[in-house]
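User: Fold this; C-alpha cells only.

Assistant: Input:
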Amino acid sequence: MKIRFNQFAKKTIILFLAHIGFTSFTFSQTYFQQQVDYKITAELDTLKNTLSANCIIEYTNNSNDALDQIVFHTWWNAFKDKNSAFASQQIQN
C-alpha cells in the first residue's frame, strides 16, 4: 500500500512537525525564579513623631545570567495623596 500526499498535505505536515519541535524546545528551557528574603525592623516614637527602620535584603540570582544592576523603588510618602509618584504609577496601570 502506497500513500500519496499532494503538495499542500506535505507542506502542512512539515509545518506541523516544525511547530512541535519548536514548541518542545521552547518549553524545555530551564525555568528559574529569583528569590528575595528580607527582614524589616521598625520603631515608632510617638513622642518625637519619628519612625526608624532597618531593612536587610538577601537576593539570590537563580538565572544563568549575571546581573549588572538591581533596581529598588522607594516610594516616599506613597499614600500621601493622589499626586504621589506611587499613585501616579498605579493610575497608569
